[in-house]
Write a structure and sequence with these properties.
Chain lengths: ~260, ~550
């Protein structure tokens, strides 16, 4: 579903993303794990077409993001870490706007919006302006908006920032449910517990390189570390010498 | 649904909600704003009407100016629209956070750029209508033109607004695409050079001018440009007049010329936008330049200011560094000075000594007006928004053990220092080029200093009163209510201090005011200006400090 080949991006003297290749099949919840400044946001922005890669290709559902941007964007959703929403719209107006933008008209749009708002606990806020909502409420609204056009792939950058335990539980359940329905999800986080909890596969990125890739169990066996993901993570990202980029799939290969 | 339809519905909703927000505000404030706007339109109307009457009273030359003022006015408005659209397009196309959102939606770039172009043109056109309505009304009143004049004005204004807006957007797109940020200095220099070049080309026009026109063009350098047959403002002005006078063919042709050119520019924007927007956007989001930044900019200045209390020194350095690192800010400052250079370069052709004394006097005071208006707009543009631009980091200042009083006064002194230096320098240069006498030079420079101080305090104080920490876009901060009020009060202060001097000196040359009376009058007016500036400095600062202290963060 997502196919990335030899992706590079440089900002001035910083190599933010360094020869990154990755295949994510449909229906997988993939978790990008990495310390701050590892290049997670940059990678996600390139996947959504917001940034142009210096080199390399990205295909989403078969569409090249650079060459067929409109087609690719039609089937994807993006939830940035600092969600921007139209401050002067009400949630309902905003959701209808998004539906129009993606040209989706489910037979009962208003009903769908109503039930989503209820499901996400936003029915009280339906008439407020978005500018008056709290951060967590905006985040939830953004999830509704993203699912409105039933994307095949969604990208979520740091999904849990600023959320309360209820919202966190709700979003975790939601993402799992969506994946069960066949959606592909790529999320980035530096919160290990989240990755441990819900990811099908985990990729660890450090200094723009993919330094480990596989299921949690694989990572554990392969790093020879019997401890938690935290130990593995600290172990890997602290090592001054990242794995040779030509063998980023080492763990997967060994697991077979 | 076409995505554009969805966007327009969204904008319509936003507009409706504005009403809701207004309802929540106090009625008093809304009414006050409305009255204020009406008062401003009325004030402009009276001012323009007086201007027309003054010109009519001047006789021959004045009559010739009146006839061409319409073109000149549209030239001014057009230039204003182009300038403001360069800035507005930049922020709506590249800087606005909506861009990030819409770029991940399945919109093609062409649609996106089209929408953003229309949005920014509409955003920057309100000032156009705000000025145009009273001007055309005053013109119609003075020339006793019928109501049909209003209709033709609207019919021509709309394409004119879009044409000017399109020019601005094109310049903005091209500038971002081909002048990467690291080379913005060169970009600004190139723009200024281009303006000079266009001016030079237009001046080569080998026309035989009647003597009066020739002198007139000397006097008002813009006039020649304004009445050039290739200028869209001339099509607009001429077209409106032609249709009003019943010259259907000529008017219709001019309208078609205007509309076809607008349509062409519209197509250019779409095509251009489709081809280069994405690349330009990449240039704004990432900086591919390979350059190491020093970890401390202007360290020497920091050490030089060591005698200042450390909190004040910290704030000053922060402001200077942020300003220098924000291309949006200083590139505009550069363009400001470029235009000033243009203004001064037109002095060369003056044969000041050959002019009759009344005109000489008029020119000196017109110059005081021009330089002072530049000071007012500099303050409105750069001083007023500086507190709001602290934005989300304002709490840092709020928490600091420095106190709002000190913060505000520091901002004021820094602004005042810059403004006084610039204005006194400019005024000195101008009076020297105009060969004004020493008394008049002294008065000019004194006025410049008084106005700079007042306007700095006014902009700082009102900037604190109308602080808007949620707005990251300086253009929006300035065009809000507080910004407009600030500009109007600044201009009021400027008129209030220049006009009395202007009148005395006019009487002196026209009616031969007696020496003793003349000196006394000058002293009284000087005292008045000092009192006025003292008030304008202390009151806004006091109000601003009080409001900042009572704020919650
Ligand atoms: N617009 C930009 N200009 C310059 N450097 C950037 C820019 N965006 C990101 N970087 C740099 O790229 C690297 C990766 O950043 P990012 O992808 O945001 O990391 P994270 O993994 O925390 O999301 C960092 O070193 C950051 O400083
Ligand atoms: Mg990030």
């Amino acid at each position: 579903m997502i196919s990335i080949q030899h992706l590079n991006k440089r900002f001035g003297t910083v190599q933010a993303v360094n020869d990154l290749s990755l295949e994510i099949p449909a229906g997988e919840l993939f978790c990008f794990l990495g310390p701050n400044g590892a290049g997670k946001t940059t990678t996600i922005k390139m996947m959504t077409g917001l940034l142009r890669p210096d080199s390399g290709t990205i295909r989403i559902g078969g569409f090249d993001v650079q060459k067929q941007p409109v087609e690719a964007k039609r089937i994807m959703g993006y939830i940035p870490d600092m969600p921007f929403l139209y401050e002067k719209l009400t949630p309902v107006e905003f959701l209808k706007f998004v539906a129009g933008l993606y040209n989706v008209a489910p037979p009962d749009l208003s009903g769908h919006i109503e039930s989503s708002l209820r499901q996400f606990g936003l029915q009280e806020a339906r008439n407020a302006l978005i500018g008056e909502l709290s951060h967590g409420m905006r985040q939830r609204l953004l999830y509704i908006a993203t699912f409105i056009h039933t994307p095949k792939v969604i990208f979520i950058d740091e999904p849990l920032i600023g959320l309360d335990p209820h919202s966190i539980r709700m979003i975790k359940n939601l993402l799992r449910a969506k994946v069960r329905d066949g959606m592909t999800i790529l999320l980035t986080t530096h919160i290990l517990a989240l990755a441990e909890d819900i990811a099908d596969r985990i990729g660890i990125i450090s200094d723009g390189r993919l330094i480990a890739l596989g299921k949690l169990g694989d990572l554990r066996t392969q790093s020879g570390d019997k401890g938690s993901l935290e130990d593995i993570f600290l172990n890997l990202t602290a090592s001054p010498e990242p794995l040779n980029p030509s063998t980023p799939m080492a763990f997967e290969a060994l697991a077979k | 649904m076409h995505p554009l339809t969805a966007i327009w519905i969204k904008n319509w909703n936003t507009l409706c909600n504005l009403r809701r927000i207004l309802q929540r505000e106090s009625i008093f404030k809304t009414v006050f704003i409305l009255l204020f706007a009406a008062g401003m339109v009325g004030g402009f109307f009276m001012m323009f009407l007086n201007g027309f009457q003054f010109l009519a009273n001047l006789g021959g030359g004045g009559f010739m100016i009146t006839r061409r003022l319409f073109s000149l006015f549209f030239l001014g408005l057009g230039a204003m629209l182009v300038m403001s659209n360069i800035i507005t397009s930049y922020s709506t196309l590249f800087r606005s956070r909506e861009t990030l959102f819409l770029l991940t939606a399945p919109l093609d770039t062409r649609t996106f750029v089209t929408y953003k172009f229309i949005e920014s043109t509409l955003l920057s056109s309100w000032a156009f209508f705000f000025l145009m309505i009273p001007f055309t009304a005053a013109y119609a009143w003075h020339e006793k033109l019928g109501l049909i004049f209003a209709l033709w004005t609207v019919v021509f204004s709309l394409p004119f607004v879009f044409l000017s807006g399109a020019l601005g957007s094109l310049i903005s797109l091209a500038a971002v695409r081909w002048f990467p940020r690291s080379r913005l200095v060169w970009g600004a220099a190139a723009v200024i050079l281009l303006i000079f070049a266009i001016r030079a080309i237009l001046q080569i026009r080998p026309v035989i001018q009647e003597e009066a026109t020739f002198i007139l063009n000397r006097f008002l350098p813009g006039l020649q440009l304004a009445t050039h047959p290739l200028m869209p403002n001339n099509w607009t002005a001429e077209g409106i007049m032609a249709l009003t006078n019943g010259q259907w063919l000529r008017g219709g042709m001019l309208w078609l010329v205007l509309v076809t050119n607008t349509a062409l520019l519209f197509l250019l924007i779409q095509e251009f936008g489709r081809r280069i927007f994405y690349t330009a956007y990449q240039q704004v989001t990432g900086s591919p330049k390979i350059r190491r930044r020093r970890d401390e900019l202007l360290g020497w200045l920091d050490r030089l200011l060591a005698f200042l209390p450390h909190d004040i020194r910290g704030m000053i350095m922060k402001d200077i560094r942020s300003f220098l690192r924000d291309p949006l800010q200083w590139s505009q400052a550069l363009i400001f000075f470029g235009l000033l250079g243009l203004y001064f370069s037109s002095f060369r052709s003056f044969h000041y000594n050959e002019m009759p004394p009344i005109w000489r006097n008029l020119v000196v005071f017109l110059n005081i007006f021009s330089v002072s208006s530049v000071i007012c707009s500099l303050a409105a543009r750069f001083v007023f928004p500086q507190l709001s631009l602290e934005g989300h980091s304002f709490w840092i200042l709020g928490l600091a053990p420095t106190g709002m009083r000190r913060i505000l006064l520091t901002k004021f002194f820094l602004a005042a220092l810059a403004m006084v230096t610039i204005s006194a320098g400019l005024m000195g240069l101008a009076t020297w080029m105009l060969q004004a006498g020493s008394a008049l030079s002294l008065i000019s420079i004194g006025l410049a200093v008084a106005i700079s101080l007042s306007v700095s305090a006014l902009s700082t104080g009102l900037g604190a009163l109308f602080i808007d920490l949620k707005q990251p876009n300086p253009a929006a901060i300035i065009s809000g209510f507080g910004g407009t009020l600030n500009l109007v009060l600044s201009l009021g202060m400027m008129l209030g201090s220049i006009l009395p001097f202007g009148l005395i000196w006019h009487w002196r040359v026209s009616e031969g005011l007696a020496d003793s009376l003349f000196i006394k009058a000058n002293l009284i007016v000087g005292l008045w200006v000092i009192l006025l500036s003292a008030l304008m400095v202390s009151l806004p600062l006091w109000l601003g400090i009080r409001s900042l202290k009572n704020r919650e963060y």
